[in-house]
Specification:
The chain has 30 helices and 31 strands. It is α/β, with parallel strands linked by helices. The protein has four domains: 1-13 and 531-752, Isoleucyl-tRNA Synthetase, Domain 1, CATH 1.10.730.10; 31-161 and 371-399 and 461-518, Rossmann fold (3-Layer(aba) Sandwich); 194-351, Alpha-Beta Complex (Isoleucyl-tRNA Synthetase, domain 2); 768-924, Helix Hairpins. The chain has a four-stranded antiparallel β-sheet. A four-stranded mixed β-sheet has the order 10-11-9-12, covered by helices on one side. Strands 29-28-31-30 form a four-stranded mixed β-sheet. Strand 18 (418-421) and strand 19 (427-429) form a beta hairpin. Helix content is 44%, strand content 16%. It binds one RNA strand of 75 nucleotides through strand 8, strand 12, strand 13, helix 11 and helix 20.
Length: 926
Amino acid sequence: MADELTKGFEPKDIEARWYAHWQANGVFAASDDPNDARPRYVLPMPLPNVTGSLHMGHAMMCTLEDVLTRAHRMMGFNTLYQPGTDHAGIATQVVVERQLKRDNVSRHDLGRDTFIERVWEWKAECGSRIVEQQQVLGLSADWQRSVFTMDAGYSRAVREAFVRLYHEGLIYRAKRLIYWDCAAQTVLSNLEVDSEEENGELFEFAYPVEDGGEIVVATTRPETMLGDSAVAIHPDDPRYTHLHGKFVVHPFVERRIPIVCDPILVDPTFGTGAVKVTPAHDFNDFETGKRHNLELIEILDSEGRINDHGGSFAGLERFEARKAVKRALDEKGLARGAKGHRLMIPRSQRTGTVVEPMLSTQWFVKTEPLAKPALEAVQTGKTVILPEEWTKTYEHWMTNILDWCISRQLWWGHRIPAWYCDACGHATVVNAEALSACEKCGSTSIKQDEDVLDTWFSSGLWPFATQGWPDKTPALERFYPASDLETGYDILFFWVARMMMMGIHFMGEPPFKRILLHSLVVDETGKKMSKVIGNVIDPLDLINGSDFENVVQKALPGAPLDEAMKKFKKAYPSTASMGAGFEAYGTDALRFTLCSYSPQSKRIPLSPKKIEGYRHFCNKIWNATRFALGYVEGATVGASAPAATLRINRWLLARLEDACVEAKKGIDDFRFDDATARLYHFFWGELCDWYLELTKPVFAGDDAEAKRETRDVLAYALEATLRALHPFIPFITEELWQRLPKPASSPVSIALARLPEAGVGRIDADAVREMTALQEVIGAVRTIRSEREVHPAAQVPVVLRVSEPTLRAVLEDDRRSLETLMKTSSLSLELPGGSRPEGAALSHAAGVEVLVLLKGIVDPAGEKARIERELKKAQKNVEALEKKLGAKGFADRAPPEVVKETEEQLQGYRERIRILDEARALAEEL
RNA sequence: AGGCGGGUAGCUCAGCGGCAGAGCGGCGGCCUUACAAGCCGUUGGUCGCAGGUUCGAUCCCUGUCCCGCCUACCA
């Protein structure tokens, strides 16, 4: 540690070292001490799947959450970032089954108990990977408290919730039309189904009418006609009036099918205006069936094969059956042709297979009574959603919520605590892992429900089940409700809404004060990251660096390298200029980048170039500190800003104050883009570009008191700035902070130091105004030098003419600063109106006439062109302002200060024109 | 179809009643002893279109055209 800083910032060297330091010192641990008087900050981590590995979405989420966590810890809160992992029912089961398949074994071969053992083994092997990756990201979660949703305690909470809701009548079992995943062999909730538009066909065929004639219907799923129990027409459709009350004959099975009139289902302008009705396999038809009391004819088994109701088609797989039905209709002369048709195909999120609406007995949560208070909590502001616009989406969803199917035909998960009695048929629902007798008749011939609960049911209990609920533990008392919940907007309904409902129901108050939502991380062109498009980026490749070959193989597994490369480069145009791969940008650069995107936009187009830019920023911080370390040894750093008399020091402390206040506001408002932008600008644009440059002449000079003051201010401001930056870039700030002089009572880690807030610096309007004038004057000289192509090292005489006494004094006072930054050995201050030096370029800034003596180096034509350009600009401004001032009603209706300000602006531009006119005359003489 | 959001510099996006901003890029000049992962300067905009409210509109209102996302879908 005592060794010197390397010339450039190398993230790899420092990250692992400091994470170990934090862990060893218990920096992340929340306090259980009942006497701890600090306010609490609790943030439940959106639990990743145990099957998962870290992707960009996690990186985004984790970064924002860790910033919130670290910032609050530094604000003096007793902070709990509650980590954990989710057993992820379907996802995990699918992964392990796939593994078994390699050995040609199915889960049924193993049996339920053995299979579950296998899943646990797998979890023990691979379940910690995502946690390790989260630690690479620097997460300051309290890992000691990590919870897995299948832990014994958590499982007990899940059963308890089920049992209570059941006895309150909020959970019921019913036969309903549900979405069925034929591959995973389970029911899915409507949220686990994604519909995409795909090409299909609209197939038309005729039903013979009983008394002769026919009626033509159209369908995209011809095989479902085996389960038809009606043909519907619109009651007012004149084409079909003669068929009212008639029947058609099913061509394949012995069945008379009624023709019904239904104005809701039938749109007479679409297709033939006649619709086949299959109540057991279509949601709309199901409703129609209820209206007309139609027969429910199931034709599919759980694997998607036609069952006995399908007559001669029985046993055929559903897509085979489709072809067979079409062929058979054709043979009977009933086919009436087909046309191409775009339609929405519902697919399982997990297995990708087309899901089938099927009738099935399942467990449901009655959502309406739970949703109402969850809606009210947001409407009354007890829970706030940020960014605000999501409130409407939440309300819309909560008011249109459907009952929630919570049973799943899986083995991996929380088994439903219901036992059915063979003797009396009663269902015993109790919080137990095993049951020996029916609670009603005492029979021991009972059987537990085979199904498990939807994963979202268990994760809906997260904010309180992690703290020991249903027991009234001290942890539950202390850490419920949580403060914030941060997550992607895509699981607002899946998860957030569920936690709101469950939290309010079981705990009596909403689980969070704020719900903070971030957007989807997409590729540079705005497309969703997917292994089909080949635009997935592993965050660790950005942190550790990686050849594009490696990156691309992960993005599009199994594809030829050049094809994958082409797709990848197309998705990330900015990589074109990046050579053979990503350099090791480090965790800090990635985190800072992710924070810099506005949470309001719906997409976050990840740009590797931008990450590179923020690695440059880290390098800048590194080098600025390296510079400062050469001067700050022995500095006295106190808890508050040191006294300052020099203008540059007063100015820096004023800017520090502003930057820290703005950054804190950004954090408070969940506007990390504002916070990072302000800190970036302060550090680079103010501290480095101006302040450090201005300290150079001071440190090179021989005014001991000025040196001492500047040393103290530099050390103080840098130390404070690192603290302000720490939540965003924890590693580099810790590394540098440890090397700087700091207050005597500083903690073992910057992570435990205070976040700078109002009062860290000092408001000093005079210093800011005066420094701004200096900056403008220096800028004017630099512009002239640059446009005249004066070599940056060349010393050129400068004359400043100013009448205003205060400003004149400031310029005189900071002569040394001006000379350094203007690169002049000969600076003279004069009153306006003196003679015109030969070969002078003239400009104007902050009320000062700026003359740069360029005789011999000047290009008269270029000089004139520049002046003309500036004159034109100034004249345009004058015209605009004159028009504004002269506009009807402006003077008497606009606020006086606005009028005054406008007049002053106009004066300024007029003055500028006067000087530029002179400059033009002067240029003529060159 | 309904709901929500967006159209601002070449690109990605802030700003949302009172002189149009940032980062990246472009252009010109510099290896100036913290940093070439850098320094200095500079160029980019009828703020989607049309009306309205206002002394004043990128910002508020109405209409309109595009583009996303979500929900529900026509068998």
